[in-house]
Design a protein that fits this description.
The chain has 150 residues and is α+β, with helices and mostly antiparallel strands. It has one domain: Small protein B (Small Protein B, Chain: A), CATH 2.40.280. A seven-stranded antiparallel β-sheet has the order 1-8-9-2-7-5-4. Strands 3-6 form a two-stranded antiparallel ribbon. The longest helix has 22 residues. The chain is globular, with a radius of gyration of 18 Å. The N and C termini lie far apart (47 Å).
């Protein structure tokens, strides 16, 4: 079995949020979901995590229906359970109780064993001036790189 390289990222997460702590979680998936993800047909741009009755769930992650799935296909935007340790779940629960804090997916990837893993982060939203500062730093870095090339 050859493991294809899978790397689905949420590029807006670092722009929209201050990322404080990251976790690596497994996911509970069905057969057609895993096949679609391995084909690269998933999006985590609108997804977010939530704590509910002792478990952490990922909501709004879109996984396109598998072409050859027939009536066994899955719902594209169903909630998906994240597999974390009890210690990690309790840390996430404490973090999410504070107003303005959220759980944001950063990256969806395949582990060395072929399991689908999700990198999530505890985050707080950025203000408009923080976003402007980030854009300014990015432009300055680009200018510096251009000058160094010459």
């Amino acid at each position: 079995m050859s493991v294809k390289e899978l790397n689905i990222r949420n590029k807006r997460a670092r722009f929209e949020y201050h990322l404080e702590e990251t976790f690596e979680a497994g996911m509970v998936l069905t057969g057609t979901e895993i096949k679609s993800i391995r084909n690269g047909k998933a999006s985590i741009l609108e997804a977010y995590g939530l704590y509910e009755s002792g478990e952490v769930w990922l909501r709004n992650m879109h996984i396109t229906a598998y072409e050859n799935g027939s009536f066994y296909n899955h719902k594209p935007k169903a909630d998906r359970k994240l597999l974390l340790t009890k210690k990690e779940i309790s840390r996430i629960e404490k973090f999410l109780k504070i107003k303005g804090h959220t759980l944001v997916p950063i990256k969806l990837f395949l582990s060395e064993k072929g399991w689908v893993k999700l990198q999530i982060a505890c985050a707080t939203g950025k203000k408009l001036h923080d976003k402007r500062q980030d854009l300014k730093e990015k432009d300055d870095k680009r200018e510096m790189d251009r000058m160094l090339k010459r």
